[in-house]
Write a structure and sequence with these properties.
alpha/beta; Aminopeptidase; 8-stranded mixed sheet; elongated; binds nickel (II) ion
Length: 388
């Protein structure tokens, strides 16, 4: 069975919700209009429970199945937040907020899960409970972590949890996933270097933090190339270097910022350990000191095998087996659905967004043609996991 018929009929309505969200992007935890819109719609659809303020601005809708015999509870998660990017699409429904944009398609994720909520509340063709999770602050704020910390899983008795993200470059009507690590752990690197300021004409009287910083940036590149197993995966990128105020002053301090990505706990530990050694050792070599702050942010998004096989089977029912890649290449991007997958078994899946601009690009737009596939996936997931 391909697209759920009723979903095809709802396409225009769901797309209209999506475009309204697109025009009103909100970032991090400040998704007040979006969360209020979601809660209002969930109530209008007749959800049995609508709870707001979980993980600060998260919203949860509960829909109980027809018979109420089964105690099975499944969580479906969408993210609601946008990005601090100035939109350059020129679309009729483009962002009305300067410097804010739905450049990751979370408008589409929210709309598709709302579409599924409307259908599931109407039909209740399942035996169990569907918990629809709308989270804030996926983009760097750890909204998923906050919702889990706030007792999301225990409070609603969630046994399994599923997430979805659109994927530019993957054809519309296709899905991709894999058991095990699908997306990377993303950690933050901050390095503060302290030397000795001096007149630029008298370098011998100072300790040049710019030189030390440059050496650290270079040395760090040996971690992935020389310490990590070539068959493993890691990324270390230094993305900011701040130092100095004038042409003729050797700066007393310098600071570096960056990100470290990995797909396994062992490599994550190794990268942190080597970073510390390289940073401290290089600074010492030049008589400076340097302090690394390594903040472990999002963990690896690790799919549970059984739930992933189930998710792929549901996707295949909708898209056809040949359009579901069950052994997708992992990506080094990160996703805070990982916190939910640490709390409960489940699976994350990519849904094709077609030939669009990439995620986080100012010309990106969620592809409304993907709505029937994503929405049908959610619906069939619930109906298949908890049959009447
Ligand atoms: Ni995203």
């Amino acid at each position: 069975m391909p697209i759920v018929n009723r979903v095809a009929e709802m396409q225009e309505e769901i797309a209209a919700w999506r475009r309204d969200l697109h025009a009103h992007p909100e970032i991090l935890f400040d998704v007040h209009r979006t969360a209020a819109t979601v809660a209002e719609k969930l109530k209008a659809f007749g959800c049995d429970e609508v709870v707001t303020g979980i993980g600060r601005t998260g919203v949860v809708g509960v829909i109980r199945g027809r018979k109420g015999r089964s105690s099975k509870v499944i969580g479906l998660r969408a993210d609601m937040d946008a990005l601090p990017i100035a939109e350059q699409t020129g679309l009729p429904y483009q962002s009305t907020v300067p410097g804010r944009m739905h450049a990751c398609g979370h408008d589409g994720h929210t709309a598709m899960l709302l579409g599924a909520a409307k259908y599931l509340a109407e039909t209740r063709n399942f035996d169990g409970t569907a918990v629809l999770i709308f989270q804030p602050a996926e983009e760097g704020g750890g909204g998923g972590r906050e919702m889990v910390k706030d007792g999301l899983m225990e409070r609603f008795g969630i046994a399994e949890v599923y997430g979805m993200h659109n994927y530019p470059g993957l054809p519309v009507g296709s899905f991709a996933t894999r058991p095990g690590p699908l997306m990377a752990a993303a950690d933050r690197i901050a390095i503060e270097i302290e030397g000795r300021g001096a007149h630029a004409a008298k370098p011998h009287e100072g300790i040049d933090t710019l030189l030390v910083g440059a050496q650290i940036v270079n040395q760090i590149q040996s971690i992935v190339s020389r310490n990590v197993d070539p068959l493993g995966s890691a990324v270390v990128s230094i993305t900011q270097f701040h130092a100095g105020t004038a042409d003729n002053i050797i700066p007393q301090t310098a600071s570096l910022r960056g990100t470290a990505r990995s797909l396994s706990p062992e490599i994550r530990d190794l990268v942190e350990k080597r970073l510390r050694e390289v940073v401290e050792g290089t600074a010492r070599l030049y008589g400076a000191s340097a302090k690394l702050t390594y903040f472990r942010d999002y963990p690896v998004t690790k799919n549970h095998p059984q739930q992933t096989a189930f998710a792929a089977a549901v996707a295949a029912e909708i898209a056809g087996e040949e359009r579901v890649d069950t052994n997708a290449e992992p990506v080094m991007g990160a996703e805070d659905f990982s916190f939910m997958l640490e709390a409960r078994p489940g699976a994350f899946i990519f849904v094709g967004n077609g030939d669009t601009a990439g995620l986080h690009h100012p010309a990106y737009d969620f592809n409304d043609a993907a709505i029937p596939f994503g929405t049908s996936y959610w619906i069939r997931l619930v109906e298949t996991a908890m049959p009447v």
